[in-house]
């Protein structure tokens, strides 16, 4: 250590400089490495009347009783719902839903979950995208809410919605599957009978054998089975084409606007 006045070296523990006699002033400098840095993330909501901290889902200040009638904060869920409502293109809707980042606040998670569930049960054209978001929001709510009354309600609503979704999906599958099932059974059985009848008729050596008649009838039934399969395929293709045409028309309307 050296004197600030004359530059003479000062012995450790000395209170005065031996060269000029000036009093030694020791300045304690706290290393920046020892300083604690506080980082805050997110938003802290306070009562506009008394400044007390507000918890999630509180509509009245617990300290002063002030009733919270509104908020000037941006509502990302409402903005998202408005954007989805104004978008006509199914493709763009699916893209918006898939790319939407689920908020971190409990109120927004709760609100978005209700929005996603209601659209899953009503918006069949974007069903897969809404289903994925319902699952994501449920798992995020499970972490954020913990064992609370709010999550208990979300859990019940989620299970009820998933049961309805599975039931609707199964009914939709059965509405299409029965055509393929009947067509396949008729086609396979008639093909077997047609081959068997032809073989037995040839084996009998009788040109008027009833086996030939069975083979002929089976051939007719076989063609019927093929027709059923073709009808089922065409019905599915028409349904897809109708959805695609609707999307194209909506895209054209948006471009004109």
TrEMBL record:
<keyword id="KW-0472">Membrane</keyword>
<feature type="domain" description="Zinc-ribbon">
    <location>
        <begin position="2"/>
        <end position="23"/>
    </location>
</feature>
<feature type="transmembrane region" description="Helical">
    <location>
        <begin position="177"/>
        <end position="199"/>
    </location>
</feature>
<dbReference type="InterPro" id="IPR026870">
    <property type="entry name" value="Zinc_ribbon_dom"/>
</dbReference>
<feature type="compositionally biased region" description="Acidic residues">
    <location>
        <begin position="248"/>
        <end position="257"/>
    </location>
</feature>
<protein>
    <submittedName>
        <fullName>Zinc-ribbon domain-containing protein</fullName>
    </submittedName>
</protein>
<keyword id="KW-0812">Transmembrane</keyword>
<feature type="region of interest" description="Disordered">
    <location>
        <begin position="235"/>
        <end position="257"/>
    </location>
</feature>
<feature type="transmembrane region" description="Helical">
    <location>
        <begin position="211"/>
        <end position="232"/>
    </location>
</feature>
<dbReference type="Pfam" id="PF13240">
    <property type="entry name" value="Zn_Ribbon_1"/>
</dbReference>
<keyword id="KW-1133">Transmembrane helix</keyword>
């Amino acid at each position: 250590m050296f004197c600030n006045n004359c530059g003479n070296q000062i012995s450790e523990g000395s209170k005065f400089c031996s060269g000029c006699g000036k009093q030694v002033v020791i300045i304690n400098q706290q290393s920046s490495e020892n300083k604690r840095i506080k980082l805050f993330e997110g938003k802290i909501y306070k009562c506009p009347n008394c400044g007390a901290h507000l918890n999630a889902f509180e509509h009245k200040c617990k300290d002063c009783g002030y009733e919270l009638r509104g908020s000037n904060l941006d509502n990302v869920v409402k903005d998202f719902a408005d954007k989805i409502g104004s978008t006509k293109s199914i493709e763009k809707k699916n893209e918006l839903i898939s790319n939407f980042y689920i908020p971190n606040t409990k109120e927004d998670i709760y609100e978005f979950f209700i929005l996603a569930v209601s659209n899953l049960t009503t918006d069949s054209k974007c069903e897969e995208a809404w289903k994925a978001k319902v699952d994501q929001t449920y798992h995020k709510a499970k972490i954020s809410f913990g064992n609370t009354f709010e999550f208990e309600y979300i859990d019940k609503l989620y299970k009820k919605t998933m049961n309805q979704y599975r039931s609707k999906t199964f009914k939709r599958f059965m509405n299409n599957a029965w055509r393929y099932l009947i067509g396949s059974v008729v086609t396979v059985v008639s093909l077997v009978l047609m081959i068997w009848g032809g073989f037995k008729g040839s084996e009998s050596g009788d040109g008027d054998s009833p086996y030939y008649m069975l083979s002929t009838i089976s051939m007719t039934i076989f063609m019927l089975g093929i027709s059923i399969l073709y009808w089922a395929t065409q019905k599915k293709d028409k349904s897809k084409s109708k959805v695609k045409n609707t999307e194209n028309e909506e895209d054209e309307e948006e471009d004109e606007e």
